[in-house]
């Protein structure tokens, strides 16, 4: 098993980072929050890079790659606090359609790959799915069936959220729609989709943690106390070093979980829980230490840090909160 990124994976990740550095700068992300939607041009740019079609077969216009190939781009999405639903579409809904096959996959996968359609999966473990309002199609899983429902035919209530780049809803009314899967097949596909959501969330949390540490280091190098940059004080250095170690240790667990989900490893459930719990704790520690370095200014709208602080706390419950993830690991180790 090889988890070290291949040359092609590194090239794709670098291309996404270069693109988001310009197109998803903190000022542009903040502007997207204020506009209350996502940036159609930025979404199309991601499609042109091939990111939206990573897990879509070449015959349907995608790259024909796998879950592990998406880890790098998802980390970059977290590093940029990307407002668009890259994880929800490319890492969850698209591979769910690929696995299910049928008319829905044939109709929607090419449109996902080109950025002309946004498809979001609504899973049983996620009562407040994100990015529903900006989508074209919902894949609604209730545990026994998976249905493809045009978003315009569903009714929902917007939910309060601290992250303006990740609007969430509660589904109120969902019509029958087109059947995608039912019975044992639906249960298996739903379980896999939920694991993919957890892995994608964990990957984004790694990127969030890295971005928060970078911001804190930059601030600590310019903010002075007692005639010295605060980054010169050991207490600041040690906190940031500990945060970086946590993020670095989380990364291989996320990569292992992505690989396990892709090959249907019997241990995929516990691998996913470990990745989500570790990445979640690492990101939480990173944003908290970064906030301490910034002081009260870190909460403010004008300070970039608040984008990642809020994204971290918005993502922590997604794909299994920290407590439930650790409980799953405990049950595996101590049955």
User: What is the oligomeric state here?
Assistant: single chain
How would a textbook summarize the main sheet? 4 strands, mixed
The helix tally amounts to 11
Q: Which strand order spans the largest sheet, edge to edge or round the barrel?
A: 1-2-3-6
**Pattern of helices and strands:** HHHHHHEEEEEEHEEHHHH
**How much helix, percentage-wise, in residues?**
55-70%
Span between N and C termini? 27 Å
Percent of sequence in beta strands: 5-15%
- Derived from helix and strand composition plus strand pairing, the structural class reads alpha+beta
Unreliable stretches (pLDDT < 50, length at least 5) are none
Structural commentary:
By secondary structure, the protein is of the alpha+beta class. The chain is 59% helix and 10% strand. The protein contains eleven helices and eight strands. It has a four-stranded mixed sheet. Helix 1 (7-23) packs antiparallel against helix 3 and helix 4 packs parallel to helix 7 (183-222). The protein is globular, with a radius of gyration of 20 Å.
List keywords for this structure.
335 residues, alpha+beta, two-stranded antiparallel ribbon, 11 helices
Structural topology:
Blueprint: H1 7-23, H2 26-35, H3 40-49, H4 67-79, H5 86-100, H6 102-113, E1 119-122, E2 137-141, E3 145-150, E4 155-159, E5 168-173, E6 178-182, H7 183-222, E7 224-225, E8 228-229, H8 234-262, H9 268-294, H10 305-315, H11 322-333
Parallel strand pairs: 1-2
Antiparallel strand pairs: 2-3, 3-6, 4-5, 7-8
Helix pairs in contact: 1-3, 1-4, 4-5, 4-7, 5-6, 5-7, 7-8, 7-9, 7-10, 8-9, 9-10, 9-11
């Amino acid at each position: 098993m090889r988890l070290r990124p291949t040359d092609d994976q590194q090239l794709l990740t670098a291309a996404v980072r270069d693109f988001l550095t310009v197109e998803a700068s903190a000022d542009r992300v903040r502007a997207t929050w204020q506009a209350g939607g996502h940036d159609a041009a930025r979404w199309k740019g991601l499609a042109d890079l091939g990111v939206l079609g990573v897990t879509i077969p070449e015959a349907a216009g995608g790259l024909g790659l796998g879950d592990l190939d998406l880890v790098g781009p998802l980390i970059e999405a977290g590093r940029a606090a990307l407002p668009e639903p890259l994880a929800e579409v490319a890492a969850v809904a698209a591979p769910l359609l690929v696995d299910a096959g049928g008319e829905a996959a044939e109709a929607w996968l090419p449109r996902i790959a080109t950025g002309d359609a946004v498809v979001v999966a609504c899973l049983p473990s996620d009562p407040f799915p994100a990015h529903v309002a900006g989508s074209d199609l919902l894949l609604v899983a209730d545990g026994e069936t998976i249905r493809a429902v045009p978003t315009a035919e569903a009714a929902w209530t917007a939910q309060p959220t601290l992250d303006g780049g990740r609007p969430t809803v509660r589904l109120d009314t969902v019509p029958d729609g087109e059947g995608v899967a039912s019975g044992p097949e639906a249960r298996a596909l739903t379980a896999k989709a939920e694991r993919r959501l957890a892995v994608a969330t964990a990957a984004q949390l790694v990127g969030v943690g890295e971005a928060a540490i970078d911001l804190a280091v930059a601030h600590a190098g310019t903010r002075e106390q007692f005639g010295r940059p605060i980054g010169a004080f050991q207490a600041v250095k040690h906190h940031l070093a500990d945060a970086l170690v946590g993020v670095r240790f989380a990364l291989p667990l996320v990569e292992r979980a992505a690989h396990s989900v892709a090959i249907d490893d019997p241990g995929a459930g516990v691998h996913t829980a470990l990745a989500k719990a570790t990445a979640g704790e690492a990101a939480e520690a990173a944003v908290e230490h970064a906030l301490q370095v910034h002081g009260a200014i870190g909460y403010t709208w004008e300070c970039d840090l608040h984008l990642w602080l809020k994204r971290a706390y918005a993502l922590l419950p997604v794909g299994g909160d920290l407590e439930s993830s650790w409980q799953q690991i405990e049950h595996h180790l101590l049955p």
